[in-house]
């Protein structure tokens, strides 16, 4: 045990460790392209739905889902926002993937509800309308959701 | 299992403590990430990395991705143990300062 450092110095060292841990937590996120890709796919599927080719829409929707599942397995943990680092698994919140998937399911339900409401109201392109609205919500709320997760993790940091 | 408290003279200087603390929360980091967060020059950071690598606390890898040569750094098991022991030692210093003086 060191006898030559005081409690003030020890506290400063622990504060510095906490600060560095927060800097790593600040990197927990999904890559920016993930949200943009998702929003673009959403609008694309909305356009397809309004073209009235049910089989094509179904096939592309399944393809989009498969592509998303393959990408999501790599990015949904929030550990690889950039190529600059990989955040340790025990530092991130293990519930992030479930949280994002839950958010996306709510967005799917919102798209269907909006499209049905727009259709009932006589809109010419109800699916496009609904998908554009939800795509904007995804772009705004997706990153905001991750920011909330980071704030929660930062509050828990104690060196 | 809790790591026993062990003050580590090599880790304790503020720059090296910051480097090791950053690495302790990551599987690996890029050289540039550490440099930018700590506001160090390339040469100053290389020197600190050299010291930590010599002690066996970090491992430096140089994967080639595309045309770019990257430098990835990670904490070794020995480095992680030393860091945890050092944090425990720092906590012990604070705990002993906060403890009420023993009665005679």
Question: Could you characterize what this model shows?
Answer:
The complex is a heterodimer of chains A (159) and B (104). Chain A has helices spanning 7-25, 32-50, 54-75, 96-120, 126-156, and one strand at residues 85-87. Chain A has 5 helices and 1 strand, in the order αααβαα. Chain A is mainly alpha-helical. Chain B is 52% helix and 16% strand. In chain B, the strands form 2 sheets. A 3-stranded antiparallel sheet of chain B has the order 1-5-2. In chain B, strands 3-4 form a two-stranded antiparallel sheet. In chain B, strand 3 (64-65) and strand 4 form a beta hairpin. Chain B is elongated and about 65 Å long. The mean pLDDT of chain B is 91. Chain A binds chain B through residues 1-2, 5-7, 10-11, 13-14, 16-17, 20-21, 23-25, 79, 83-89, 91, 159, and chain B through 5, 7, 12, 14, 17-18, 21-22, 24-30, 32-33, 37, 65, 70, 87, 89-94, 96-98. Strand 1 of chain A pairs antiparallel with strand 1 (26-30) of chain B.
Relevant terms:
heterodimer, A: about 160 residues, mainly alpha, elongated, B: about 100 residues, alpha+beta, three-stranded antiparallel beta sheet, two-stranded antiparallel ribbon, 5 strands
Poorly predicted tracts of residues of chain B? none
Beginning-to-end CA distance, first to last residue of chain B: 35 Å
Sheet-strand content of chain A, in percent, reads under 5%
Low-confidence stretches of chain A: none
Q: Helix count of chain A?
A: 5
In short:
Chain A is an all-alpha fold.
Give the helix/strand layout:
The complex is a heterodimer of chains A (159) and B (104).
Chain A: H1 7-25, H2 32-50, H3 54-75, E1 85-87, H4 96-120, H5 126-156
Helix pairs in contact in A: 2-3, 2-5, 4-5
Chain B: H1 14-24, E1 26-30, H2 31-38, H3 42-54, E2 58-61, E3 64-65, E4 68-69, E5 72-75, H4 77-98
Antiparallel strand pairs in B: 1-5, 2-5, 3-4
